[in-house]
Here is the input.
Amino acid sequence: LLVWALDCDIWASNKESRPHSLFDKAHKPHFDDPRVNLFLALSPLLLGCEFLCVAFISWMRGRSHKFDRANEEDNPFGPELQVSLGILVMAVFVAWAALSLVEEQYGKLVMEVAMFFFVGVGLYVALQIGFKQILEMQRRNPTLQMVTNIIFSDWTKAALGLVLMPIMPVYFGVQFLRHTVRDYLQKKGLLENRESIELFGAVSKWDKASVFVKMMYASISLVFVQFCLKLLPALLVLLKTALRQVDLLVCLSVLFVAEMALFLFPPVSGQPLYILVTVVLVPKLGYETAVKFWIGIAVSLAFCLVVKLSAVAVEQKLIGKPFSNSVTVKNFIGVHTPFIKALRYILSQPGLSRAKVAVLTGGPDWPTSVLTGILDLPLLSMLYGSLPVIFLIAPCCVSGGFMLRAAAEQDERTKGMYNALKEISGVLALLLPATLNVFLVHFVQSVTTQFHKDLNDPTSTWQRDPHESEILELVKKNETLAKTYSERTHWDQQPYCIHIVSVIGTLLSSLATYVLLCGKPIRPFGLEDKQEDLPGGSVAGLIQPTGWAVLVIVGLVTLCLIVVL
Here is the structure.
């Protein structure tokens, strides 16, 4: 299926001919397209990986069903569920990182593959493992309890509502028909009287006031993040053009300040920033020969490592550290939860353990560094544990270098080879952090399993925060306030005018989401493009009419949200 998806994406993007398959005899493949060459080169590798995945899943299932699940000393989490959740986390990370890719079509492909894995693993968990087995394991595993709470939270329902809003009328129609037929059969005595079902199914049990508000928040956040990430390459190109005429020392100074400022912006991932450094520094040092080219890559790699470690120090000491004594902030991030306690235990270990490296290099840049400051962990230990990030930076620098070589190359065959190498490096830049995310989930689960008794013992001092007693009191207070607020703002307590505004806001939120994801609101623009390619010479020129429409819709959603709140 993965090979088929890649095949279809390559040919569907070809405007000259759109065959249904790579094996369509009526069309000949365009071998000058580097994506076709890349696909042909990777096909045996992809097939081999698929066979390995099948073998691994078969081995995993055979091994996992040998466990005595009634034994408390055994692994209560279940190897199947552990790997499944790791793949889900990897899919989410890859989808997030794909939003920062410099080319629109490849980001879309990665998003599609990540969604395929997400849906497939979700169905595997539901059908093969089963919800009953999950609930049994949930009672004994804190990590699974946290994941389950997230899955069944109002935020997850809001996300589903945004995506499934267009088919809601069909769902309600089916539920109404089901309810009508059931009542008719019961009255005729053709069906045993059982517990009555809700007219509109499980949706009728939702806290609609809370879910609708979160749907509006989610759509506003989604539009903000998407616009920031899609317009970021254009801003970076403007910076690259401005630095082209200055000397190397001034260039390094300005580039360092700009990179640090972007690292302090939470939605921005590190990949495009590392590529920017390469496309700015390599031309300064020259890349006419192979030696100069690789020297430029090495200098870019060293500079990126310095920027990354500097950002870690600034985020930890200047952002996270001031909140290390804040009970409110610690309650917000959940330092009293098993997940954060497991992270604290892993990060407190000396040296370069595998778990520590997975957390510091595989976790999101900004949240991870700020968390270490809030937990008041030693800076030198965090910097030392972050050094292996150089292996994640290297593919980005190599990808940026071959981007430059491809743009300067006149021979089409050589240019296609450089483009293929650029894409392979870009794929590695995504896969390495995603793999580390899988290991991160594994290590956190192992710690929560190892210290299961301490996590369930309220009197235990294991990884206990100095302010934990105050935090637990604040948690109880917030739960009481949340319950009171929920009762006063319950859907049944709100006037009809607020109902109307809430419904309008949610409909507009879903509309904004679909226009954003399907309407191409921003014209594709990558780091390899030039400032002259900007429509009208400004970043705003990249926003298409559908993009302005999305901004108008989000403005209306914001007004609805203000009225409801």
